[in-house]
């Protein structure tokens, strides 16, 4: 059994070496670097004119719930989807190989790993799915 485990581990390592490494010069990598280079999401609302109103749409998608009668606890698990337009996260798709939409992990720009990720469009529309929070 130990020999089989070692053989499987070695085969996995050999296969991993054969996988191509993502190039740091791809259009999507360049896009992410350029978008996040000067992005300050912690301090300011994502509007260029401070008198503009930022509309945030929120959807709640219940996944399941549980009632523990003995502990007198109610557990409600849901996904929270938030969408808005971020005027600082825009780009010209022609400059990045016609990429009009991309996904980034939110902990790269928001400092949290509770988010599954952000989907961005070239017009600055953001979709964030919050799947686990406390």
TrEMBL record:
The keyword 4Fe-4S does not apply. InterPro entries: Neur_chan_lig-bd, Neur_chan_lig-bd_sf. Residues 1-16 form the signal peptide. Pfam families: Neur_chan_LBD. The keyword Signal applies. One of its GO terms (molecular function) is extracellular ligand-gated monoatomic ion channel activity. GO terms for cellular component: membrane. Residues 30-106 form the Neurotransmitter-gated ion-channel ligand-binding domain. Keywords: Receptor, Signal. This is Neuronal acetylcholine receptor subunit alpha-10. It comes from Eumeta variegata (Bagworm moth).
């Amino acid at each position: 059994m130990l020999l089989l485990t070692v053989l499987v581990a070695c085969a996995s390592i050999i296969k991993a070496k054969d996988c191509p490494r993502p190039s740091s010069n791809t259009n999507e990598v360049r896009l992410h670097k350029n978008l996040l280079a000067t992005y300050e999401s912690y301090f300011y609302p994502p509007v260029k004119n401070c008198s503009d109103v930022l509309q945030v749409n929120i959807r709640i998608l219940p996944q399941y719930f549980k009632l523990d009668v003995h502990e007198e606890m109610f557990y409600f698990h849901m996904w929270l989807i938030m969408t808005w337009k971020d005027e600082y996260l825009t780009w010209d798709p022609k400059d990045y190989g016609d990429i009009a939409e991309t996904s980034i992990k939110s902990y790269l720009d928001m400092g949290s790993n509770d988010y599954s990720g952000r989907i961005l469009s070239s017009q600055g529309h953001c979709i964030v799915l919050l799947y686990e929070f406390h």
